[in-house]
Design the sequence.
DNA sequence: CTTAGCACTCTCGCCTCACGAGTGCTAACC
DNA sequence: GGTTAGCACTCGTGAGGCGAGAGTGCTAAG
């Protein structure tokens, strides 16, 4: 009964989605004909819509009132119907400029990426800090704050820095501290956690046993590395909550029933973003696969995410460091634009990191929007 | 006609506030009599309520339905009626424990303070990072990341650390970097911004002119200090949004009108927290005055804050470093508890910072809840 | 000054009803 | 067979009305 997915039906599906994304209200057959000057009558469109519904691409919230896409409908759109766009050169330039302004301050990159992502895609954004696949120690510096307190600055490969204060015995000179830090740096230079643990056990450098103080420093470093490693689930940064809540999904369209739902949705959204529940399972998946991943509505099985779509991309340097960033919003989302935004910012961040790692750096043309594949 | 503010009327005001804070619904005369076993009849209470209303301490949302406190009512409660409590020892212990777990990692203190504040006061929390009254440079370390990139770690008095990558010419040895950093550290040690700018202009150390590289480093430090100084309005951290949004104020009690308002309130709240609009003017005020400040509803004149109360306290070390932290929530707020929470965490943070500055440090009993005055 | 009694007011929830949008179906048309 | 016009039908939406209940304000008595 449902019939084949003819060319025209695909066009209609595409138009329904476009229209629904624009207006956030169910789209009627007549509207479609009128707005897009279709060369067929509303009745024909209705027939095709019925067929698309049987195929599982559209639904009917109510008997009257138009159609809205299903998750499967969006999926088909993303995979087959959508034209792949890029951000306009002007937007690309603006974004690059913002990153240029915080060049060097790598602790701000993730935050900035979130902010830009949210503003550009008009939805909430999420990102994890880039994480070295294998944390490797680089060096330790000790700086006296006063007689009994020092600041330890541990630097790891890839520009990862961790600072920590520690109490020291009074009477240690800066030279003292520097020498101790130097010894520890030499001992642990370029080691991974497991190797560092071994070296901490022997507690000798070139056969000379370490002093108590130096051993304490080694322990400090090892503990810091363990903390990094253990921190199993990534901290997820996010931004643009307000951006997302301006979407009509969160407006009390009509009736108090709707209003109540809107508020409930709001609260749940907040929970998702704050706790990362429903989001964190997606991270390792996105890390594993390259390209841009699109998860639409309940596809992933997580019930809390039923009404949301997530667009994630991995960024980083192959084999060295990687993180994930993306956009989250209602399933009714401007997929082409969101996807190109995510793709662009991921490649931008990758290039920034590559420069840091001195691989593949393209100093001037840092932000080429590489057309990587979009589905894993 | 209104009559004096007798003892009984004060009691009634207090009970109305307590009851309203508990239940979030307008409180009726009969409820009060029943629940608190008042030795008078509802009619008497009604008369007193009418008097309190004429005095400006209570209002009437509707003709029927009970009374709710006005801003002035809350104000009188906070200043005269409220008994000053402290957090229970168990809670104090729990909070201390959480801070103990991140001892040393001072970049996490503010975040933790926000989180604890929110969870304890069941409202949103805000905090600014501690800021030195006068930024003073301590030392610079340079760590090579690879041949053409180095990480500069600038340390300022009070444990403030700023990191920044910078490009370097290939061929510089670690020893090279160390020497250059040492020279710059010696040159700028303990200087404030203005002095640093002077020294940067002369560009000599002990009469010996600096190399180009060293001059570049000096510039880097000066720019970083300028950025600190210029950053006029403090970045405001916040947490506990979800906590606040669980308050009944943000539930669609009944009627779609209410629901719409709830959503609008939600959005506005988000804006306040994200942008700091309406909040930032309070910061310098709180920094200037010691003790705990309570701003109730529209008292401060900011319209956006009409429905919110803010409880702020300054924390830090006198004459050295200071920040602000506090709680924000609907005017219907458990003031005694919120105030004691803010007071406690502010004193805890102050002690932690004092330890860092080596003044007045009380190593074991770090968290005495000093009973400082509560109004500026 | 306090209290009992009572009329009055106003919200809330529920129901009904009419309207209109949009569909699904049937039958005619190309 | 695909397409179209016509039309009955469905259902959400909003307005209006109504009864119940809660709580007050007032008055008059204790």
Sequence:
């Amino acid at each position: 009964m449902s019939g084949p997915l003819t060319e025209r039906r695909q066009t209609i599906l595409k138009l329904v989605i476009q229209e629904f994304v624009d207006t956030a209200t169910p789209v009627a057959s007549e509207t479609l004909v009128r707005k897009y000057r279709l060369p067929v009558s509303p009745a024909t469109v209705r027939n095709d819509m019925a067929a698309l519904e049987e195929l599982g691409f559209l639904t009917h919230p109510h008997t009257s009132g138009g159609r809205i896409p299903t998750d499967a409908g969006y999926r088909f759109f993303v995979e087959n119907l959508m034209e792949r766009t890029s951000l306009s050169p002007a937007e690309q330039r603006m974004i690059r400029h913002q990153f240029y302004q915080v060049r060097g301050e790598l602790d701000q990159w993730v935050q900035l990426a979130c902010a830009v992502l949210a503003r550009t895609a008009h939805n909430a954004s999420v990102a994890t800090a880039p994480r070295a696949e294998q944390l490797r120690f680089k060096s330790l510096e000790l700086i006296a704050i006063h007689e009994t307190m020092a600041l330890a600055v541990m630097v790891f490969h890839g520009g990862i820095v961790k600072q920590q204060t520690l109490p020291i015995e009074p009477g240690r000179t800066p030279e003292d501290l520097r020498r101790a830090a130097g010894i520890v740096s030499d001992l642990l230079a370029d080691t991974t956690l497991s190797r560092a643990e071994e070296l901490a056990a022997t507690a000798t450098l070139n056969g000379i046993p370490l002093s108590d103080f130096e051993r304490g420093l080694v322990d400090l470093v090892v503990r810091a590395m363990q903390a990094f490693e253990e921190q199993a689930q990534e901290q997820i940064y996010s931004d643009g909550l307000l951006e997302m809540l301006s979407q009509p999904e969160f407006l009390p369209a009509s009736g108090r029933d709707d209003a109540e739902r809107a508020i409930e949705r709001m609260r749940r959204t907040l929970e998702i973003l704050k706790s990362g529940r429903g989001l964190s399972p997606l991270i390792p998946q996105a890390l594993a696969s390259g390209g841009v991943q699109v998860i639409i509505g309940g596809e992933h099985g997580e019930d809390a995410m039923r009404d949301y779509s997530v667009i994630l991309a991995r960024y980083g340097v192959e084999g060295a460091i990687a993180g994930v960033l993306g956009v989250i919003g209602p399933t009714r989302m401007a997929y082409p634009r969101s996807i190109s935004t995510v793709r662009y910012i991921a490649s931008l961040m990758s290039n920034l990191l590559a420069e840091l790692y001195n691989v593949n750096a393209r100093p001037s043309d840092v932000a080429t929007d590489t057309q990587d594949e979009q589905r894993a």
Notes: Confidence is low (pLDDT under 50) at residues 361-376 of chain A.
